[in-house]
Amino acid sequence: MMKLLELKIGADGWIEDVDLLPYFFRLTIDSATEFLFGESVNSQLRLLPGYQSSKMGSLEAEFARAFDAGQMALATRSRFMDTWWLYDSIEFRKSCKIVHDFVDHFVQLALSKDLRRSSQEKDGTAGKDKYIFLEALAAETQDPMELRSELLHVLLAGRDTTASHLGWSNLHFFFIS
């Protein structure tokens, strides 16, 4: 995030007005996907000049865009209350498919890794890796739909709640200082 903001610093050392909320949302989706899946979607880094995409490539960017679009559609649906089903666009369905496919990719990796890990534990060759939330969930259940649902719920909280809090904290700091 700071590297992107540095690009906005003018020759005089000052920066024009910047809406920090998109930066906070990208920061928190990057950190949340790193924690949940073990791999960040790099939504901040991809905006830097000369960024080289990871092995996931454009799927990362599509996921972030689809996550936003899907969330906006769900917010609209919630306003319809009992008639939520009236709001059902093709864009919403495409967004849901992209998000589900992206998360399902990591779920399948975790499930196959869990199978490899259990065989390594029998062999005594298991090593200590970084903590990945999905792997901990996969140790509790092998149901891919349940894993996807849990991940999306935590991702929603990990991104939106945290980004909103950062925005309010920043606003509070600005007015109090």
What does it look like?
The chain is an all-alpha fold and 177 residues long. Helix content is 67%, strand content 0%. It has six helices and no strands. It has helices at 2-6, 21-37, 58-79, 90-123, 133-140, 144-176. Helix 2 runs antiparallel to helix 6 (144-176), helix 4 crosses helix 5 and helix 4 (90-123) crosses helix 6 (144-176). The longest helix has 34 residues, at 90-123. The chain is globular, with a radius of gyration of 19 Å. It starts with a helix and ends with a helix. The model has no long low-confidence stretch (mean pLDDT 82).
Brief overview, please?
The chain is mostly helical and 177 residues long. Helices cover 67% and strands 0% of the residues. It is built from 6 helices and no strands.
Question: What is the fold's blueprint, element by element?
Answer:
Layout: H1 2-6, H2 21-37, H3 58-79, H4 90-123, H5 133-140, H6 144-176
